[in-house]
Amino acid sequence: MIERPITDWLPLTKKEVEKRGWDELDVILISGDAYVDHPAFGTAVIGRIIESEGFKIAIVAQPNWKDDLRDFKKLGKPKYFFGVTAGCMDSMVNHYTANKRLRSNDSYTPGGEAGYRPDYATTVYTKILKELYPDVPVLIGGIEASLRRVTHYDYWQDKLLPSILFDSGADMLVYGMGEQPLREILRLVKQGVPLDTIRNVNQISYLQPASEPLGEFNNWDTVEISSHEICLKDKLKYAANFKVVEVESNKWQANRIIQKVADKTLVINPPFKTMEEKEMDISFDLPYTRMPHPKYKKRGPIPSYEMIKFSINMHRGCFGGCSFCTISAHQGKFIASRSEKSIMKEVDQIVNHPEFKGYISDLGGPSANMYQMKGKDESICNRCQSPSCIHPVICSNLDTSHTPLTEIYKKVDAHPSVKKAFVGSGVRYDLLVDDFNKNNQDGNHDIYMEQLVTRHVSGRLKVAPEHTSDATLRVMRKPSFKYFRKFKEKYDNIQAKHNLKQPLIPYFISSHPGCEEADMANLAAETKDLGFQLEQVQDFTPTPMTVAEVIYYSGVHPYTLLPIKTAKTKEEKQNQNNYFFWYKPEFKDWIRKRLHKLNRPDLADRLLKSQKQAAIDKIIGESESAKAKKRKNYFKR
Q1: What would the pLDDT profile of 204-247 be if each residue is shown by its tens digit?
Q2: Residues in binding site for [4Fe-4S] cluster
Q3: What is the pTM of this model?
Q4: Are strands 204-209 and 264-268 parallel, antiparallel or unpaired?
Q5: 509: which strand partners?
Q6: Residue ranges of the Radical SAM core domain (predicted)?
């Protein structure tokens, strides 16, 4: 294996900066993740964009915030600004389980070691920089900053926090996917405009004195939401704020949002329109090495990199708008897709990786099967305010053709160096059920599904029905469980046709707002009837900028302001989770007693009856049903 020169990576040290012949840096990025030079890692994408605009850029990855702060000083002071990100995850989600237990590992650190980033990393890093270099502007971004850009509920402190701009002292925040606003910002600072005075760029947020008038830019209209102080006193006002923020974040012609916080005005400029194919290609085609920085070699592999190093992200965004998910809040509900040419170019790069053995682990995206999907008439999308394109029904204007995706699968399959290309991302199964998706007019969904099941399943296929209760699913913005049953039937038929044994792995969430304990018992019974023994279940975590988080905190749905019950105590959450493990002897007695207490002995019977007895009862039931039918027909005569 030929060693690549260290200058192929963006510099991490003073020595690497000097090797490039630089005596000053224009921008320094501080990141909570280890530096992996790959398009799946935000720090690498932002660093490469800054480099592509002609700036001298270096990265300080996972700086020590506990010592004499030498990591923050080692590269000196940048000419233009510091960029700060907590990394690819909110630092609190990264650190803690849904039960607020400290995690023992960190997937974005060499060796998977925990403890290399602080809680609330964006705020901690920014405050340090402001103390050390008070005259240098700080630009914050990434998922933590993006989801905390406005008053938000923090589950880990169990209280409302103001915009992260207020707590951190940063000069500007870029929310969502940062390529478009960042390029605009870089061009302005290159022209001599100080970063902390920029006000007219889309998709940025900043604070200004409340006494200062708002600037008039780009014919933006302005909508004001309830102040942080009002939200602290009134949960309904906080909930109502969320609807405004979600709607404006997913419009192509959005309004500017303002919110008072203390003696400041928080200003959130409208987002850019979703990136076009050409823009996506430029971002993914930057000169990444596609590998972690060589300095980590002795510290062990970086788990998140190991998981994706032979995978390809074909698109961004998700039009599902699920209540518990942050994807649409950060990436947007509209799909930004790469060209086939760019994707195949990345396939060529992967097969040339020295460790590649012929298997691509994922051809996917946030939802695997949304590639190139968009509105048939984009002028309708332009006016749309719905947070989801597929809930409660699939929009008749949505082109859900799977043909472009099927063609990509076939082309990758035909590559001489690829033995198998799998789909590891979750498949949005409801798009493939004709009873739910009425837009399958030419059978392209069936062709896609045949291709997927026969060629691209690595042992098992992941899907996410999330629940079985229709009431809970409505709160989740997910379709009825009956459509999962129809999908499973279709999936099983294809498997039988081709003599395959690839189990479906359904994902479910416990303790989600709108879910009662009996709903979880019923979920366990329904999945048992379908032959599933669930080994891992996700307990709901209220993450900022989601509908479910607002319900959890306020007790009401932000769109209706009507009450919705939510399991909150440790006991309530544990009770819901226990039903998943009906097959374990230690839970059987608890389940029986608990369901009798809830006056649901029928569910206890369904859950605790052996499969053999259940099969006998089913045969008897069918026999009795047949006898009753005969009697009915006899009396009809």
Answers
A1: 999 999 999 999 999 999 999 999 999 999 999 999 999 999 99
A2: 318, 322, 325
A3: 0.94
A4: antiparallel
A5: 538
A6: 304-584
